[in-house]
């Protein structure tokens, strides 16, 4: 491996740690606000949010160790930075697991909102295909021992299929949720008015466009640097962005009356005026 390629790989690893920490901090704030505001939610949804946060915490801890390993422990050893450490492989799998959990939660809400199972089944096929390809790539990364092994899949059609399905999956989820939310009187089991539905639809569409843009950006990184791990490390950032989008969607629901009396709304879609809060409380 050339020095330039090694610098590119390790630089991408460190940059991912910095950006990932920023998104992790945002997810922590949103998770805290969720539990503070929506105390009346069911135990299953609360458990799902806690599981997502736990996976995110484990991912950032393992990734910090990965950066320490390559930047500190391997600083005086010429060959160690070329080795693909177990922590890097594990962090890739944690990112895949985080995306898989988020896809499952999105599919649950799509099936809940849908009057029949035709459209959700088609979206589910796209989601399943995307995650199967991600698992296959994850297995190949586990087999690798050195970063030079990335050459084996850098020009593979599996890479392009993975990012294509990831983008298609995000668009299909957004399209299905937008369609069903537009014609549904029930949003996340909470009675809501038209402004809440419109706000939620805008967030769903915006999140999908952002995820799709990031998917194309990751693919562009791979095309520009095919012999680096840029596509893999940027995917880890996208997984954390995906997590934040889901938490933002939960925060766009109407605030329970008890939370309005006890707590002031903190940021995001819940930053309403007192009049809007009164109107929402009276309609609920």
UniProtKB/TrEMBL annotation:
UniProt-listed Pfam families: DUF6534
DUF6534 domain residues: 173-253
Highest taxon of the lineage: Eukaryota
Keyword vocabulary terms for this entry: Membrane, Transmembrane, Transmembrane helix
Residues passing through the membrane, by range: 6-29, 50-70, 90-109, 121-145, 157-182, 203-225
InterPro entries: DUF6534
Alphabetical list of PANTHER family matching this protein: CHROMOSOME 1, WHOLE GENOME SHOTGUN SEQUENCE, DUF6534 DOMAIN-CONTAINING PROTEIN
Protein name: DUF6534 domain-containing protein
Organism: Mycena maculata
């Amino acid at each position: 491996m050339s020095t330039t390629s090694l610098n590119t790989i390790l630089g991408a690893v460190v940059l991912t740690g910095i950006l990932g920490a920023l998104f992790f901090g945002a997810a922590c704030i949103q998770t805290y606000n969720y539990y503070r505001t929506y105390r009346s939610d069911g135990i299953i949804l609360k458990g799902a949010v806690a599981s997502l946060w736990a996976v995110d915490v484990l991912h950032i801890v393992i990734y910090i160790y990965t950066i320490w390993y390559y930047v500190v422990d391997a600083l005086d050893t010429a060959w160690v930075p070329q080795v693909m450490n177990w922590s890097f492989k594990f962090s890739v799998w944690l990112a895949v697991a985080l995306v898989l959990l988020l896809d499952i939660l999105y599919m649950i809400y799509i099936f809940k909102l849908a009057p029949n199972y035709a459209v959700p089944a088609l979206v589910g096929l796209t989601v399943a295909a995307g995650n199967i390809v991600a698992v296959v790539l994850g297995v190949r990364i586990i087999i690798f021992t050195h970063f030079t092994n990335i050459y084996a899949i850098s020009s593979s059609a599996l890479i392009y299929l993975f990012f294509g399905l990831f983008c298609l999956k995000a668009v299909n989820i957004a399209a299905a949720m937008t369609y069903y939310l537009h014609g549904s009187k029930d949003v996340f089991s909470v009675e809501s008015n038209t402004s809440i539905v419109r706000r939620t639809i805008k967030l769903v569409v915006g999140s999908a466009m952002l995820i799709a843009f990031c998917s194309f950006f990751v693919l562009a990184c791979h095309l520009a640097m095919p012999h680096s791990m840029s596509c893999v490390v940027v995917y880890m950032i996208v997984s954390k962005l995906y997590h934040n989008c889901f938490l933002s969607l939960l925060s766009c629901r109407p605030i329970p009356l008890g939370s309005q009396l006890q707590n002031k709304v903190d940021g995001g879609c819940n930053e309403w005026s007192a009049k809007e809060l009164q109107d929402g409380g009276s309609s609920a």
